[in-house]
Design a protein that fits this description.
Number of domains: 1
Bound molecules: adenosine-5'-diphosphate, magnesium ion
CATH topology: Rossmann fold
Shape: globular
Oligomer: single chain
Number of strands: 13
Largest sheet: 8 strands, mixed
Strand order of the largest sheet: 7-8-9-3-10-11-13-12
Distance between the termini: 33 Å
Radius of gyration: 21 Å
Order of helices and strands: EEEHEEEHEHHHHHEHEHEEHHHEE
């Protein structure tokens, strides 16, 4: 899938040829610096992109249908129920002027399991499940009456209440301290196990991605540069960008570099994509070939791919 933003000047090619599969029940991570296109990808799946966004190529298949072609009514049935999203700032997920309980009633399908009382008790049960004490009473409170960590739990409860098939979590732990982050990651994993939903976990925090995900995509300036099982990416990174991110010792990621390290050089201008490998201007390995020709995705291991001329392709056995 490819997405442009119209800006009045040359369109900005924010995502180019992104291909990703989120298998049922799996936790897939997307990692990349700020501005690499992670949120754009998430919002495209939810069909919540801003008006100046254009999907220039591709499809988003959910339940055998192209999400991009659904009517707004059909999309409303899916959004928040079958595909739910939680944002970095829980105040984005939560409505400030409606009580938590009111919002949790609204999300529940009309007519499903009948009356208000049963919906309310379901809402309380889900709140309790994500660790909100006195859930029954808390239903009548408003988002601002909770701490940041509690708000994020409530936002996750709302995401989970209809037992979605996919939960998209966009930087949900970024604003939280380390202890709260660990609790939220633990909660997400438990909920995945209980509900069996897939999670698309977006973060620029490698430690969090390493802890939670089964597979990961490394996004750089709107392109997937490497993807594969989490252990392959962390122990055998093949793309120089992933290597730079992961630095040398994967075991120490969560202690030392909680955030992505800063890599020298600037991200390319996405209104005028240069020839060659998108990372070549910042790459210490780049050769003439890299500046001239964009590399293909090479399979470098079982289900592990890297977009680099120097990636070690899997040797035929
Ligand atoms: N509505 C928009 N119009 C123009 N450019 C946008 C718009 N939304 C995002 N962008 C640009 O698209 C790029 C990707 O943004 P985003 O998806 O938010 O990245 P990330 O979530 O990885 O930080 C950034 O360069 C950002 O400035
Ligand atoms: Mg973002």
């Amino acid at each position: 899938m490819s997405i442009d933003f119209d800006t009045g000047r040359a369109p900005v090619h924010v995502l180019r040829d992104i291909s990703l599969t989120v298998p049922a029940g799996e936790i897939v991570g997307i990692v990349g610096e700020s501005g690499s296109g992670k949120s754009t990808l998430a919002l495209a799946i939810m069909r919540l992109l801003s008006g100046n966004a254009r999907v220039t190529a591709g499809r988003i298949i959910f339940d055998d249908k192209d999400i991009l072609k659904l009517t707004e009514d059909a999309m409303r049935e899916i959004r928040g129920r079958r595909i739910a999203m939680v944002f970095q700032d829980p105040m984005t997920s939560l409505n400030p002027v409606r009580s938590i309980g009111r919002q949790m009633l609204d999300i529940q399908r009309h007519g499903a399991d009948g009356n208000t009382a049963s919906k309310r008790s379901k809402a309380a049960a889900v709140l309790k499940r994500v660790g909100i004490p006195d859930a029954d009473q808390q239903l009548d409170n408003y988002a601002f009456q909770f701490s940041g960590g509690m708000r994020q739990r409530i936002a996750i409860a709302m995401g989970m209440i209809e037992k979605p098939e996919i939960l998209i979590a966009d930087e949900v732990t970024t604003a939280l301290d380390v202890t709260l982050e660990a609790q939220i990651l633990h909660l997400l994993r438990e909920l995945r196990d209980e509900i069996g939903c897939a999670i698309l976990f977006i973060s620029h925090n490698l430690g969090a991605v390493a802890e939670l995900c089964d597979r990961v995509l490394v996004l750089y300036a709107g392109e997937v540069v490497e993807q594969g099982p989490i252990t392959d990416i962390f122990y055998r990174p093949q793309h120089p960008y992933s290597r730079a991110l992961i630095a040398c010792d994967p075991a120490r990621i969560s202690e030392v570099t909680r955030d992505l390290p800063v890599i020298a050089g600037e991200v390319p201008n996405l209104a005028a994509i240069p020839r060659g490998c998108i990372f070549s201007p910042r790459c210490t390995l780049a050769s003439d070939l890299c500046h001239r020709e964009a590399p293909a995705m090479f399979e470098v291991g079982n289900g592990h791919f890297a977009r680099c001329h120097f990636a070690e392709a899997v040797a035929p056995r």
